[in-house]
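Lecture 7 notes: from sequence to structure.

We start with a single chain of 241 residues. Read the sequence below before looking at the structure.
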Amino acid sequence: MRVLLIEDDASIAEPLAEGLARYGLDVGRVATGGAALAGPFGDIVLLDLGLPDMDGIDVCRRIRQVSHVPIIMLTARGEEADRVVGLEMGADDYLAKPFSMRELIARIRAVTRRTRATADPLTGTAGVTGVPEPAAVRAVGPHPAGGALVVDRRTRQAWVGGTLLALTPKEFDLLALLAEDPGAVYSRQAILDQVWDPHFHGPTKTLDVHVAALRRKLGDPAWIHTVRGVGFRLVVPASHG
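Now the structure, written as C-alpha cells:
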C-alpha cells in the first residue's frame, strides 16, 4: 500500500515514515500542501493540518475535489470544530497527536477496509448519466420530481434521476447502508458501527455533518428523515405539489 504523508515537521515525519515502513507500507513524504496537491496521492493520505504554506483543511478539500483517496487527518488541534470542518471537507477519519503507531495502523486498516472498493473518480465517472443494472444495485423511488435514487455497491456510485452524485467514500457508505432497507430506522450507534467503526471515538457531530452533506447532494433534504432520539431513515420524498 502506498501512503502519502503530508507533514512538515521532520522530527515527526521521519519516525512516522519508518514506523509505517515496518508494517510494510510504502511511504512518500511531502512537507507542504502545494507539493501534496501535485500528487500522486497513493492509496491513502495522512494529512497534517498544520502546514507552512496552506491550511490542511484546504488541502483536504482540494484533494477531495479530484480524488476519493482515503484521507486521515493528523492534528494537534483540540477544537472539535476543526475536526468537524475537516470531516465535512471529505476526510475519512482523524487522529489527534500524540498517537501510537498501533492506533494509526488500526485506523489505516479500518479506513482502507471500508473504502477499498472505491472506484477512481478520474476514470469512468465524468459525464456518466446512464444507470447500471448489476445485482448490487438498489433503487429507491421514484422521486415525485422525477427519477429514482440508485445505489450501486459494485461500482460505489449513486445517481438521482440519472445524475451521478459526487459522494465521498463515507457519504457513499452511509447512503448505501440506509438504502439497504428504505424506510427502516437505523440508530445512530448502528450507523457509526457500520459506516465508521465499532471503536470510533470521534466527535458525535460527525454523523450529522455527513447526513447534512448527503441531503445537499441528494437535492432534497426529505430523502433522509431524522427520527428524534433514535437515528435516521431513507424515504422517498413526498410530492411538493
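The chain has eight helices and twelve strands. Keep this in mind for problem set 3.
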